Amino acid sequence: MTINKTLDNEILRLDLDGRLDTVTAPVLENELKSAFNEAGKIVMDFSKLTYVSSAGLRVLLTGQKTATEKSVLLTLTGVSEEIMEVFDMTGFTDILTIE
Question: Is the domain defined by 2-98 classed in CATH 3.30.750.24?
Answer without folding.
Answer: yes
